[in-house]
Amino acid sequence: MSNLGQLRIIGASIITLGLAIGAAIPLVSNAQTSPQSTFPDVPADYWAQPFIRGLAQRNIITGYPDGTYRPKQALERDEFAAIIRKAFEQNKEKQIESGSVYNDVPQGYWASQAIEESVEQGFLSGDQNLFRPRQEVSKLEAINALTRGLDLTYQASVSPVTTIPPYYMRRRAAMRRRKPLMLPIGITSLMQPLLIQRANAARTPRVATDSQPTTTATAPLTPASIVEQAYKDADQIPENAVPQVAAATQSNIVVNYPNPNILNPTQAISRGETAALVYQTMAAQGKVPQIDSNNPAAKYIVRVGENK
């Protein structure tokens, strides 16, 4: 074969190889830079769609191999660890050898690295060498994990309270204690015209000339008063968890659907609720935009004194 023929064959091979490589590169690039941001089971009118979409666009949450997100499914501890790992970058509070320090997290477990980091950063913890990765997470546990890991604390504040001066309080109490005057029957018959006159005068409305003055003072908002104002089921929150729930409520990171005034603290948190909670926590940190107040999802964000 002549040298010219060999050169033609080599040139054609190079062109073919170049086209093949060029066709392959966009596929790899798209796979790396385009996380799934929509899911067939999360329609546009789903209440948590803005939160889910916002996190999915940032590759903080992902769907299942079949492409679904399953927003109503209860969240498990290993899934929560994976979300925390992607959403927050906190300094480590302690060092553990590896996620396999827990007897129920074997080497090579899909979430072992996330579990390790979430424990080191103070979000989650184990118990007696067990992490219980497949255990469902309650809403209270999720709130406590975020407030603990991000060091969110209740901030003391005050609320206006109307008070009555002591003098008027004493006067009112004295009037309540005053006993009726007892008179002989003969005298009461003589007083009948006077009593009728007084009764008629009582029926005639008159303008008050001695209105009771009041003053406006400020009273501290305690963690207990915050949760009592915000949640109708505040009595279901354990006493030792009230400060954490109050801190989360003050930060506007709690999202309750369908009623913002019902926390359901002991109920398992769903994957949709988790997306809302994590998104709001990131929004409080300035990492993601706040949900627009005109968005229907905004009405489920708990704001003390605003939700009805």
Give a written overview of the molecule.
It holds the Pfam family SLH. This is S-layer homology domain-containing protein. It comes from Plectonema cf. radiosum LEGE 06105. Keywords: Membrane, Transmembrane, Transmembrane helix. Residues 35-98, 99-160, 228-292 form the SLH domain. This protein has 308 residues and is mainly alpha-helical. It has helices spanning 3-33, 49-57, 77-87, 112-120, 139-149, 166-177, 185-190, 192-203, 223-230, 242-250, 271-284; strands at residues 157-163, 215-221. It has a two-stranded antiparallel ribbon. The longest helix has 31 residues, at 3-33. The radius of gyration is 33 Å and the shape is globular. The relative contact order is 0.14. Mean pLDDT is 80; it is low at 14-33 and 161-165.
Mean pLDDT: 80
Q: What is the CA-atom radius of gyration, in angstroms?
A: 33 Å
Number of helices: 11
Number of strands: 2
In whole angstroms, the N-to-C terminal distance is 89 Å
Task: Report the uncertain regions.
Answer: 14-33, 161-165
The largest β sheet comes out as: 2 strands, antiparallel
What is the strand content?
under 5%
Arrangement of strands in the largest sheet: 1-2
Report the order of strands and helices: HHHHHEHHHEHHH
What is the 3D form? globular
Q: Give the helix level as a range of percent.
A: 40-55%
Organism: Plectonema cf. radiosum LEGE 06105
Protein name: S-layer homology domain-containing protein
Keywords: Membrane, Transmembrane, Transmembrane helix
Pfam families: SLH
